[in-house]
Write a structure and sequence with these properties.
The chain is α/β, with parallel strands linked by helices. The protein is 33% helix and 32% strand. Strand 4, helix 3 and strand 5 form a beta-alpha-beta unit. Helix 1 runs antiparallel to helix 2 and helix 2 packs across helix 3. The protein starts with a strand and ends with a helix. It binds 1-O-pyrophosphono-5-O-phosphono-alpha-D-ribofuranose and uracil.
Amino acid sequence: MKEIVLNHPLITHKLSILRDKNTGTKKFRELISEISILLCYEAMKDAKLNKVTIETPLEKYETKCLNEDNYAFVPILRAGMSMVEGIIKVVPNAKIGHIGLYRNEKTLEPVEYYYKMPENINKREVFVLDPMLATGGSAIATIDRLKQDGVKKIKFLCVIASPVGIENLKKAHSDVEIYCASVDRCLNAVGYILPGLGDAGDRVYGTK
Ligand code: PRP
Ligand code: URA
């Protein structure tokens, strides 16, 4: 199992604006979308393509296409939804499942309140989306649930991860690859990532 950290000047630049507390809702959403596209691009590097024959205006041409039906994208509500907008720009027929989890503020344990997946979820490769991997509890609970439904291949895409979140996710699900834009320093006493970007859900939806 491996974690892939996107190491690129464009990512560093976008993250710097995203982290800034003076960045407003509109820009914050746009940046999450843009970073999500870059994460998806990297995570689909091993995608299998099917042979197809098309005709250019000049001749027949044997080429390859993606079968988008082989995939499902599963944002963890709420904040994970902010990653979907970017992803459907590059995988426009993506099937989307939703899982609703919130963290109990005292125990930091995830509590499930919604679960709805596309049909035949067990036959698809699933990309779980959440901008923040903090303790890892939400990611682990989501992946536990998907595996109960028979999903075999899962990748986890996040914007910012903490070292302990990566360690916990690796321990719980050693088969799941993690793609992130940054691994930050640590968690604070109440489970927030430092330096981080604050509460992703609140910043996306302007709730605080
Ligand atoms: C945030 C974030 C993750 C979770 C990460 O969601 O979007 O889902 O915390 O923390 P963890 O790795 O310690 O589980 P939150 O619970 O704040 O819910 P929200 O998206 O509805 O704001
Ligand atoms: N969830 C967030 O939204 N931010 C953090 O820093 C940690 C968990």
